[in-house]
C-alpha cells in the first residue's frame, strides 16, 4: 500500500513538473509576440469544456461574441484558431491563402481516404495539386457536368413520380436517395445505382455512406490528444472505423473489377472501334488515367488514389445536395409568402404548363429560385464549419502572430448571420439577394457556404444543378402542406450535427399534384405512345416543333433524343460542335447487316471511321475515280 502511494506521488509530481516546464518554455517562446485572445482553459483538456459537441458551431459563435471574431482555443493539446468574421476571412483568403492551405491529418479522413489521398483531405503540396487538377479538368469540368444532364433529369423524373404516389413524403430520405442515385450513376454507372425512392434498394450502400459520414464528423481522442491515440482502440472507435473502411475498400474493389470486365467485353464486341467519350462514368475516366499513370508514372499510379477520389465524390455530393434541398423546403414551408412567390415564377416560366417537368435549360429563367437557395444556404449552411485548415508556416493576421501547424476553423454560420453585415440576419428574406452580385463562388467573404481560395469545394457546379433542378420540380409539380394534425409551427428546426448539418427530425410533407406531368416537359407523349410516330416521323416531329420549339428533347423509349428543326441551330452544331455530334448510335439493323457497323456511314466516330472514310474518299470516290466511271 505504501509503495503504491509512493508510486502515485511520484507520477503526480512528474506530471506537475512536466506541465510546469512546458508552460514555462511556451511563455518564454511567446515573449515579444502579440498573442490571440484565448478563454481561460483547463490543464490538459484546454477549452474542450466550453464546447457543446451537439451544437458545435453555436458554441463557437457564443465564444466569438464574447471574445471577438478571431480567437485561440486549445482543444486538448491542439492550438486552434476560430474565424467568425468576414473581414478576417477576407484577409486570410486574399493575402495568406497558401499559408492557410494545409490540412491536419485527422483520424477519420486518414483511414477512410487512404491516408488522406483524396482532394479535400490531402495536405497541401504536389499530391494535392495533381489530385485537384484531375477532379477539376476530368471529373467536374463544365463540359463533364453538362454531359451528366440526362442522368439528372431521369432521376428527378423518378423522384417526382415516387412522391406523386405517396400519401406523406419523407423528403429527408427521398432527397438523399435522389442525390445518391445521381452520384452513383455518374460515378459508378447504372449497374450500381439504387434505382428506388423509399424502397429497399441500395440500403446497404446508404448505411455504409452514413456510417462513414459519422466517422468523418466524429470525435477521436487522437485528433486532440495525439499521445493518447491508443485510447481510440481501447474504447472501440478504431475498430469500428477499420471495419467501415474494409467494407468501403471491398465495395470499390468490386466496382473496379466490374468496370474492367465490362470494358474488356465491350472492346471484344466493338473491336475497339471508338472510345466511350461522354458515356464514361467517373470510374472509367479514373481507370483510363490510372493506366496512363502506371505506364508513364504519375499521381494515379496507385489504385488506392482512385478509390479515395471516388469515395470522396460520393460523400461530398450526396450529403450537401440532400441537406440543402431539405433545408430549403423547410424554410419555404415556414415562409408561405416566399413559396407562393417562387411558384408564381415557375408558373410564368412554363406558361402555366403543369403537364411537364422543368428542364435544366430553363433554370436560368428562375432568378428568384437562386435567391431562395442562397438565402437558405446563408441561414442554414450545409457545412457550417469548413473542414479544418492548418497553417503551413507562421504569419500575422490582424496584427496577431500565428504559429505554423496551427489548426484553423472557419465558422461559416457565424459569418453568414453577422448583424454587422446582414440586415435582419435571422429572417428568411431571399429578396436581399435581388440585384446583388453576392454569390457562393468564394469571392464574397460574407457568404462562403463552399469556402474560398485554394481549398474551395471543387464540386459547386455539380451540386448546385442537382439542388436547383430538384427544387424547381418539387415546387412546379406539387402544392405542399403539413400532414393531418400538424401545423407549420410544429416543424422542428433542430440540427443533426456532423460534417454536414441535416435536420434532426425528418421533413415529412403532403404533396398535392398539380397535373399529369411528363418527361422533361418537351413531349406530351408517354414513352409507349412515341411508337405511334414511325409512319410519318418527320411530320410528327414537325408538329411537335411547332408546339415546343426548334430544339427539343424526346424520350424514345429509354433513349433521350434531340430533334433539330432550325437552320440556325444546325449551323451552330456543324460549325462549332461538329466533332461532338459526329458519332452514331449502334442500332440493331446496321449492326447486324453491316458487320457490327464496320462500314463508313454507320460506324461510330473514331479511328475506324477515319480509316474507312479515307479509303472511300481517296480510293473509291475520288474525283479522278468518279471521272473514270
TrEMBL record:
UniProt-listed InterPro entries:
Cyt_P450 (IPR001128), Cyt_P450_CS (IPR017972), Cyt_P450_E_grp-I (IPR002401), Cyt_P450_sf (IPR036396)
From which residue to which does the signal peptide run? none
From which domain of life does this come?
A: Eukaryota
Coiled coil regions, renumbered to chain: none
* Keyword terms, alphabetized: Heme, Iron, Metal-binding, Monooxygenase, Oxidoreductase
Q: Which cofactor does it need?
A: heme
Spell out the molecular function terms from Gene Ontology. Answer: heme binding; iron ion binding; monooxygenase activity; oxidoreductase activity, acting on paired donors, with incorporation or reduction of molecular oxygen
The residues listed in the UniProt record as binding heme, with positions renumbered to this chain, are 457
User: What SUPFAM superfamilies has UniProt attached to this entry?
Assistant: Cytochrome P450 (SSF48264)
The record's family statement is:
Belongs to the cytochrome P450 family.
Q: Which PANTHER family match?
A: CYTOCHROME P450 71A9-LIKE ISOFORM X1, CYTOCHROME P450 FAMILY 71 PROTEIN
Q: What is this protein called?
A: Cytochrome P450
Amino acid at each position: 500500500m505504501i509503495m503504491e502511494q509512493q508510486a502515485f506521488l511520484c507520477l503526480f509530481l512528474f506530471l506537475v513538473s512536466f506541465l510546469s516546464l512546458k508552460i514555462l518554455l511556451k511563455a518564454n517562446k511567446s515573449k515579444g509576440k502579440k498573442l490571440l485572445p484565448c478563454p481561460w482553459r483547463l490543464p490538459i483538456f484546454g477549452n474542450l469544456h466550453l464546447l457543446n459537441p451537439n451544437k458545435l458551431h453555436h458554441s463557437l459563435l457564443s465564444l466569438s461574441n464574447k471574445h471577438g471574431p478571431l480567437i485561440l482555443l486549445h482543444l486538448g493539446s491542439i492550438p486552434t484558431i476560430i474565424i467568425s468574421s468576414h473581414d478576417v476571412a477576407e484577409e486570410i483568403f486574399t493575402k495568406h491563402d497558401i499559408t492557410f492551405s494545409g490540412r491536419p491529418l485527422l483520424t477519420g479522413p486518414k483511414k477512410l481516404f487512404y491516408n488522406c489521398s483524396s482532394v479535400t483531405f490531402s495536405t497541401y503540396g504536389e499530391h494535392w495539386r495533381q489530385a485537384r487538377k484531375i477532379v477539376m479538368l476530368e471529373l467536374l469540368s463544365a463540359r463533364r457536368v453538362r454531359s451528366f444532364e440526362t442522368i439528372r433529369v431521369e432521376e428527378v423524373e423518378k423522384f417526382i413520380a415516387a412522391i406523386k404516389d405517396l400519401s406523406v413524403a419523407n423528403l429527408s430520405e427521398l432527397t438523399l436517395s435522389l442525390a445518391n442515385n445521381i452520384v452513383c450513376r455518374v460515378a459508378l454507372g447504372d449497374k450500381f445505382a439504387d434505382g428506388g425512392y423509399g424502397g429497399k434498394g441500395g440500403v446497404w450502400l446508404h448505411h455504409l455512406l452514413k456510417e462513414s459520414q459519422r466517422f468523418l464528423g466524429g470525435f477521436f481522442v487522437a485528433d486532440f490528444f495525439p499521445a493518447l491515440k491508443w485510447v481510440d482502440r481501447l474504447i472501440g472507435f478504431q475498430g469500428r472505423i477499420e471495419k467501415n473502411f474494409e467494407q468501403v475498400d471491398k465495395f470499390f474493389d468490386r466496382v473496379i473489377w466490374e468496370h474492367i470486365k465490362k470494358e474488356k467485353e465491350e472492346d471484344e464486341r466493338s473491336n475497339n472501334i471508338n472510345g466511350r467519350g461522354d458515356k464514361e462514368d467517373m470510374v472509367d475516366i479514373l481507370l483510363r488515367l490510372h493506366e496512363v499513370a502506371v505506364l508513364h508514372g504519375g499521381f494515379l499510379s496507385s489504385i488506392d488514389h482512385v478509390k479515395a477520389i471516388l469515395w470522396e465524390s460520393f460523400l461530398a455530393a450526396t450529403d450537401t445536395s440532400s441537406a440543402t434541398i431539405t433545408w430549403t423546403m423547410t424554410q419555404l414551408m415556414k415562409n408561405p409568402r416566399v413559396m407562393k412567390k417562387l411558384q408564381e415564377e415557375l408558373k410564368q416560366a412554363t406558361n402555366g404548363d403543369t403537364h411537364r417537368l422543368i428542364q435544366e435549360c430553363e433554370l436560368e429563367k428562375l432568378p428568384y429560385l437562386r435567391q431562395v437557395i442562397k438565402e437558405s444556404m446563408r441561414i442554414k449552411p450545409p457545412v457550417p464549419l469548413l473542414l479544418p485548415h492548418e497553417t503551413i508556416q507562421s504569419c500575422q493576421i490582424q496584427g496577431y502572430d500565428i504559429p505554423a501547424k496551427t489548426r484553423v476553423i472557419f465558422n461559416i454560420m457565424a459569418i453568414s448571420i453577422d448583424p454587422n453585415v446582414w440586415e435582419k440576419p435571422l429572417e428568411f428574406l431571399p429578396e436581399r439577394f435581388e440585384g446583388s452580385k453576392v454569390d457562393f463562388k468564394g469571392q464574397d467573404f460574407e457568404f462562403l457556404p463552399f469556402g474560398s481560395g485554394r481549398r474551395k469545394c471543387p464540386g459547386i457546379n455539380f451540386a448546385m444543378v442537382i439542388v436547383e433542378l430538384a427544387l424547381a420540380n418539387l415546387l412546379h409539380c406539387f402544392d405542399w402542406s403539413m400532414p393531418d394534425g400538424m401545423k407549420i409551427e410544429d416543424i422542428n428546426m433542430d440540427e443533426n450535427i456532423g460534417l454536414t448539418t441535416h435536420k434532426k427530425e425528418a421533413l415529412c410533407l403532403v404533396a398535392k399534384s398539380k397535373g399529369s406531368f411528363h418527361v422533361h416537359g418537351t413531349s406530351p407523349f408517354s414513352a409507349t405512345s412515341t411508337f405511334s410516330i414511325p409512319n410519318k416521323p418527320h411530320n410528327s416531329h414537325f408538329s411537335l416543333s411547332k408546339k415546343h420549339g426548334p430544339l427539343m428533347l424526346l424520350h424514345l423509349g429509354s433513349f433521350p433524343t434531340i430533334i433539330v428543326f432550325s437552320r440556325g441551330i444546325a449551323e451552330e452544331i456543324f460549325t462549332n460542335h461538329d466533332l461532338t455530334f459526329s458519332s452514331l448510335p449502334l442500332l440493331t439493323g446496321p449492326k447486324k447487316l453491316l458487320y457490327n457497323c464496320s462500314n463508313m456511314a454507320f460506324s461510330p466516330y473514331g479511328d475506324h471511321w477515319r480509316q474507312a472514310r479515307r479509303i472511300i474518299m481517296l480510293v473509291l470516290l475520288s474525283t479522278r475515280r468518279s471521272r473514270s466511271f
